[in-house]
Amino acid sequence: MTKTFRASIWKEDNWYVAQCIEVDVASQGKTKEEALANLREALELYFEEPRATLLPEITQLEVELDAS
Question: CB of 28 within 8 A of CB of 17?
Answer without folding.
Answer: yes
